From TrEMBL:
Superkingdom per UniProt: Bacteria
Pfam families, per the entry: DUF4275
InterPro entries assigned to the protein according to its UniProt record, in alphabetical order: DUF4275
Species the sequence originates in: Marinomonas gallaica
Official protein name in the record: DUF4275 family protein
Length: 155
């Protein structure tokens, strides 16, 4: 599998297969686009947010929420097909114009749009955000503890 995405900062840990990407997209749609009637989510999934079909914040408020998020790994899902990727850092830049970033458990999503400045970006939280985000923070803490133990030669 080839990766043609430029994402930064961080390292791309995995390029998901076409089948895996389809499953990720299906799961994402089941969470954030259940009420998609009347929204053109086939063209742009983020229209669920711009049209008010799922609660979100946009623009600078979305960017601020996004900067505050933490997880061990992040999924970048392109809007226009292509393979999703897994990265080890919260992406700050990507060569795509329409894409979604979220942790593996989909506690939240940041939707970047080609209409930024007019429509988007959008930041939305899963309905179970608090519990899911708590899990994300615990995973980050465990990874930090493991790295520290490894650095000290304990493992």
């Amino acid at each position: 599998m080839q990766n043609d995405y430029e994402i930064g900062p961080g390292t791309i840990l995995k390029v998901f297969s076409v089948e895996e990407t389809a499953e990720i997209e299906k799961s994402w749609m089941n969470i954030f686009c259940k009420n998609k009637q009347g929204f053109n989510t086939k063209a742009y999934k983020w229209q669920i947010f711009s049209g008010g079909g799922y609660p979100s914040v946009d623009g600078d408020a979305a960017r601020e929420e996004y900067k505050m998020q933490s997880a061990e790994k992040f999924v970048m899902l392109p809007n226009d097909g292509g393979n999703a990727v897994l990265t080890d850092c919260l992406p700050q830049a990507c060569c795509l114009s329409d894409y979604y970033v979220f942790p593996l458990n989909m506690a939240w999503v940041m939707a970047f749009t080609h209409e930024e400045g007019w429509l988007g970006p959008y930041f939305a939280k899963h309905k179970n955000y608090n519990a899911l985000n708590k899990d994300n923070l615990m995973q980050v803490k465990k990874a930090q503890q493991k790295a520290e133990a490894k650095k000290k030669g304990w493992i």
